[in-house]
Amino acid sequence: MTRSPENERRFAGGAIAGALVVIVTASTVFAWQDSDLPNSKPAGSKLRSPLLEGLRNTIRESQAIEESGGESTLLDQLEHADQILADVKAQNRYALKLAARQSRIGRAASSPNILLLTVDRLAIADPGCFGQKTIQTPNIDHLARAGMRLTQFHCGAPELKPSRWSLLTGQMLHRLPQNLSNRFSIREEHVTLADALWNAGYQTAFFGFWRNGDSPLSHGFENWSGYLKAGDAMDEFPGSIHVDGSRVRIVGNTDGGKRVSGMKMLTSELKSWLLHQRGQRRQFFVHFAVSQFADLETEGSASVMSADEYRSRVERADEFVGQVLKTLNETKSGKRTIVVLTAESGPHQRCHEAVSSLGSAGEARMSQQGLCNGDLLVPCIVSWPGQITDGGTSRYACASWDLMPTFLTLAVARDRVVTDGVSLDATLKGRDQKVHSLMYWESGRDGAVHQAARKNGWKVFKAGGSRQVQLYRLSDDPAEQADLADEFPDVLAGLIKR
């Protein structure tokens, strides 16, 4: 994105300004390499436009062009055209933003800042405020005492990449394209939560591990600090961090150094960003993604996690949450900010034994296919000072795809965005809430597509490769033990017909 007064970033020890910047803080030294600016890419990397990428492939495969000696010139021209396209798109976004801000004059006073705080994996009863007796989660519990607990909140999928996709697009997985190796990547045609709020005039930023394709800057986030690899996200003392379009080396952590933690780096970045926004007096949307289980997604990772290790990771996630909330309050941003804390997905298969021994699934059951309540129900807490009754609880059945329409309602957004969710504004304010017509999940574990759906207290499940369809009445059977498919064929037919 082209730098302008609207999107200029300021950091703890200085500003981005030259070919090599060293930012000095009390704890470490950051070395800034100006070789990966927001609009630049490594030579030969994929072009931003599918049309231009197709032309480049045609040129590379043409024997006539190769023999003419003009291949290099044509490829350079395509790279230049691609850069022009990126610059024009950035300028158009900036113009739209200014127009959106003008249209929001008089409305902005009622729109809160939004902090979406996610942990990559949590079971429904991991926090103490959801019934946990062994794991210590004082920061999450404190947030619950100041807000509302949603006890029937579902993640978008049992795997992290599709669940993040559902969260950011507001859509259920049946909308994903089939037979694509990168089907969980967010593509240009997707309108993300950040895109929609950006169009409504919000400043947008992402902090943490980005797992869905190129980078957050391509999908509505104006700024970001974090990681593109799971290994970096899990490293307690990472050697580098991405800041906007550049990779910043952490000098204090090189050659085995352990001078600054990843938690401290990200919260320091958040604090600096929030202070800058406070000075600008603009509403903001921040997605802060805490990763404590990212290593479970890597190849060759197969050992079962012990209960002690699982407890340690959840408690560290709670510590991270506490640091983020502390940063929000230190910057005096908390009073006008709605905070939503949830998990992007439920417990990993390797954690099932630990979750069971700790009682973290509550009365729900987990499964190999990942579509039982113990796999899909995750904690969700909403805190909104002066707007939500402290310590409230809602059993309304909802999911991560409901967050986009909820946030757009709070933002008084004018643009219509197609989602599968419903706004939870009524639930948060204690009014009657529109019921979902259908909630749908799928999982691709063990090489088969498993499917589940929920409607009006009923849940249906079909394992991939099986003709049998199971039906459960969740109000009487939250552990999904009694299959009622033969007893209620009409209910079953209503759930599987789509």
Task: Give short descriptive properties of this protein.
498 residues; alpha/beta; Alkaline Phosphatase, subunit A; 12-stranded mixed sheet; 4-stranded antiparallel sheet; 14 helices; 20 strands
What does this structure look like?
This protein is of the alpha/beta class and 498 residues long. It folds into 3 domains: 39-103; 111-437, Alkaline Phosphatase, subunit A (3-Layer(aba) Sandwich), CATH 3.40.720; 442-496, no CATH class. Helices cover 31% and strands 19% of the residues. The chain contains 14 helices and 20 strands. It has a 12-stranded mixed beta sheet with strand order 3-4-11-10-9-8-12-5-13-14-6-15, sandwiched between helices. A 4-stranded antiparallel beta sheet has the order 17-18-19-20, covered by helices on one side. It has a two-stranded antiparallel sheet with strand order 1-2. Helix 1 runs antiparallel to helix 3. It is globular, with a radius of gyration of 23 Å.
What is the beta-strand fraction?
A: 15-25%
Structural class: alpha/beta
Q: How many beta-strand elements?
A: 20
CATH class annotation of the largest domain: Alpha Beta
How many domain units?
A: 3
Helix content percent band: 25-40%
* Name of the CATH architecture of the largest domain: 3-Layer(aba) Sandwich
